[in-house]
Amino acid sequence: MQKTKQNNFENELEQITPIINQLGFSLDTFQPHISGEKKLMRAVTTASGQKLILIGHQEKGNKKVIIKITKDKKGVHEIEKERICRDALKNIIFAYKIFFSPKEILFTKIEGYTISIQEYINQESTFLERPIEKQFSLALKVFKAQEGAHATTYRHKKIISKTFGYVDSDWYIKSYQEFKNNIGEASPENKKLQETLQDGEMSLIKNKEIIEQYCGFLTHTDFVPHNFRVVNNDIYLLDHSSIRFGNKYEGWARFLNFMTLHNRPLEEALLFYIKNNRTKEEQISLKLMRIYRLGEIIWYYTNLLQKTSGDLQTLTNERIKFWGAVLESILKDQTISEEAVNKYKELRDSLRSDEEKQRQKNLH
Questions:
Q1: Source organism's superkingdom (predicted)?
Q2: Fewer CB atoms near the end CB (10 Å): N or C, the chain?
Q3: pTM of the entire structure?
Q4: Are 120 and 68 in contact (CB under 8 A)?
Q5: With contact defined as beta carbons under 8 Å apart, do 136 and 269 qualify?
């Protein structure tokens, strides 16, 4: 079955290539967004909102571009929503001014495909290659900017709800409960994880008022280094489909969970800043959002588990264990030990293919 889906994936690329060529563009040989694990994941999942993200060049001028293309109904909706959000950010009336967007070169629908082609944003160095002080200041600048966009009135909510979407405390709790229940049904033997997830649910319910208190803020739910570029001090967003109005700290939570693996000093610096510059309620709000996002990622990998095999299945199991341990630490108001992180990373890297290692290098 997996081999059949893999063949379908390769057939799809064969169908797409002449269409891209017809539009005056060519595809690069190496495609980091669909190689390694990304290729395998796409072959074994039927996740909503599927789209291909490809790197290519415009034949006229040999300009490097990013090509987003899909036939999937939800993927089409995602691309169209991203365009709307990108345009809306230019005109938003409540203090959101530091993010830039790549220029759209072409948007078209052809042979059943929806295609968006944007300029490729070059940067002198990746976010993670910059000095820790620069990473800290850039991250703080971004999150403060998002906090400046606050839907404080009914008029604001009405304006943004149709464009960006709006979620509240009930939505966060319900979504987390769905993650927990789905994980329980898929892995009923994992009692320890269920207990940890249950503790997380109780924390969310107990602190519902705090979650709601900090809702109504613009947040990018997938703000991690491979979704933005830094040029001088300007931030270019590469993914606008993940923008919505919700809890002030949801974007922080995603970013900090990412840094748990990729940059512990930055995680610690940002947590230190929150502890010393924000209220106790805001610290709790951040903790609650980290719990919510960890429930989400654990369900993501649990859902993949039975659809994988070999090293990828082993790695998926280890990811579930690792993020479960991170969740357990957060619930205890701790950070997971450096030893546990390094042990997981060593095992993860031993299970990754050479192609995936190369993809990660290019991605980050």
A1: Bacteria
A2: N
A3: 0.85
A4: no
A5: yes
